[in-house]
Amino acid sequence: MSLKWRIALGYSVLLIVAMTAMSGLIVWRFQQILYDQAETSVNATMKAIVQFAQQSTTPFSLEDPSVGTLQFLFNSANLATWNSANSFVQVDSGDGYPLAKTANLGGATIPTNPKLSAGHDVAYREIVLGGRPFLVEDRYLLEGTNSAVIHVAEPLDTLKRTFGRARQAIAVVLAATAAAVVIFSILFASEVTTPINALAREMREIGSDRLSLAASTLDGKVGGNRLRRRDDEIGRLAKSFNDLLARLAEAFARERQFISDASHELKTPLTSINANAQMLLRWGDQNTTIRRESLETIVRESSDLAGMVNGMLTLAKADRGDEIPKEPLSLAQIASEVAHNAMPRAAEKRIDLTFEHGGTPIVYGDAALMRQMIGNLVDNAIKFTERGRVDVRVGEAPEQAWVEVADTGPGIAEGERGQIFERFYREDKARSRIVPGTGLGLAIVRSIARVHGGEATAGKAPGGGALFRVVLPRIKLPLTELS
Ligand code: ADP
What we know:
Order of helices and strands: HHEEEEEHHHHEHEEHEEHHEE
CATH topology of the largest domain: Beta-Lactamase
Distance between the termini: 58 Å
Largest sheet: 7 strands, mixed
Helix content: 40-55%
Strand content: 15-25%
Structural class: alpha+beta
Bound molecules: adenosine-5'-diphosphate
CATH architecture of the largest domain: 2-Layer Sandwich
CATH class of the largest domain: Alpha Beta
Number of helices: 10
């Protein structure tokens, strides 16, 4: 059963059961009140009769029992006062023989009440007499050795009619309300499920060619659903879904851009390798200069290619994020190793490469990626610096660990500091042509920093050169746990 019908059915059943129970309660209570009133009324008549009988006779005496209250009641003429449309009185002897009654009873006789006894001298009951319903109070009276039973009856037909009409009215209202409840439940359920269905339909139609919900569903009136305009859970769901799609579209666009950039970057060295190989084929045998130059170019370009492919593989690995196995590492130890490995290259260019650390912060990460991240920064610093120095520093703050690489090279223009981390971005094309590189180094640095929960930034070193800084979350661990 669909959600819509489940909601509609559940809601209807619940409301109808609650309404019926409430109406039942009201009807029952109403009936009780009406019967209580009728009982009070017959009881008042009963009291009046007994009181009147007692006042109208001399007190009972053993010598002359014939003048007692019962004797008064045994005389039908004395009951005439209560002969009205609303009261019917009958007096029986104690053993149930009818002795006197009001004229309105005619030939009818109120039957004895078997429940009435000497110990239980008042009772109420409902009887049918001559086709009419009556409420009867029976009272047992004892006077000396004489006893009598008085029956006071009051017709119940008006009460029953009123009650029947009330019950009918309630039933009609109940049925109408139940119908309304069912209709509203279905409408209400549709209100909930129609936009969900619209959303599901939209989702099915989403593909890489259209990565967003149709504007007609979001803002238009398709099926009465303005998903985005709804300021409720469903509106928010549609919005979150669209935001997710927007992020996906962005990621797809980035991937497409990356593929197109990568193809472009791979094409240049490949074209050059191809051209030089053709030169070799044609002139290689005769001309040794051409042969050497062509081979040198092929070696250089193919090693660039290999570098680029390696860079792309590292980026792909860093992008996988969660799959990277991480362990506690000493940032200072890794940075120190990287710096010492680079020292011979720095020495070749007569650049001073120093390493210092304030504290030994521990970070949680992949050692090879960390080495590559710091290595890329140090390589760039040596690559772009012609004279002066490169300083590698590691430090710590309460929650963070950082590594900085500062140089005395040309530095990075302020406007470019954001872009240099883009994939394949190379500042100043003229300089890039002289200094070899792939344009992937800093993209890799940033990817690795982010996958470790940190960030990489570029700034200006005090000496005017470039200053790169990677900040990572620091973990607190006893050093003995380091692998
Ligand atoms: P590559 O070094 O292969 O060109 P990177 O992504 O490592 O690619 O760097 C991107 C650009 O950032 C470089 O082309 C260069 O213009 C600039 N850059 C990086 N490091 C430095 C530095 N230490 N000093 C000056 N410019 C730098």
